[in-house]
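Hey,
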Amino acid sequence: MQRMSVEQHGFYGIWHPIENQAETENAVIVIGGSEGNENIPLNVGRMFAECGIPALGICYFNVPGLPTELIRVPIDPFEKAISWLKDRGYKKIFMYGISKGAELVLLCASLMPDINGVIALSPSHCIWGGMKGNRGMLTKKFTNISEFTYQGKDFPCMMAELKYGPVIGHLITQQQFNFKYMYEKPLEHFDEKSTIPVENINGDILFIYAKEDLSWPSGDSVFYMMNRLKTKNWTHQMEEICYEKASHILIPLSTSMVKMFKIERKYPKECLKSRMDAFDKTIEWVKTR
């Protein structure tokens, strides 16, 4: 394992090589969601390497050299990360991300033709306003300022409707957290300018989501993107995997956060199986590209 810094390399990364680097010309960039920590880049990146796929885990905010909050986060460092991998002989580069990270990998791949494929878990089809705060969902506040920038320019974005009253109501009536409404209401007045132009992605896409995603409407987003790709006569392959017994959290890690959702408490073994199956299918998908 090797660590890279924004100051020295232009991006904040954790490199997970494999024992015999000559075995593959594929590598994957692994990023997490709105938690803004090393958990997914470090631990899921390591799991990719253990399965024979070199992985570069990247943190894109809340680390030295980058914004502390998910507001106006530059995506330009990913170009440096791509160049770093290409300089080491990797000819096919994939991106893997969940939630806000899935939104980000789709956005990066739509702008950076050297990305050869995307695995988007629990994704969004559009760019949202950024969030102030980085210490848990209930401390965050939505803004009308873009989450991401590229070459110094903000992206048009949607603004989520932040009202915590319904969250309390859902805790009482449903005994679980349900944030989906924050995004559904604004999407009734969807601004097409905020759309991620997925038809520009220069490679295949694997969409993975849970039927009962209560964090945001990822299933609707996948439907929108797949329909968009069809109408744009996109020439690459797209695939969707939907899990009935699963939550928004589809990473192959054990985390106490899954207990926020009733389905995870009711079907813990089945939900764990879904998370692990999603990762197994991801590994197979990357290796067959």
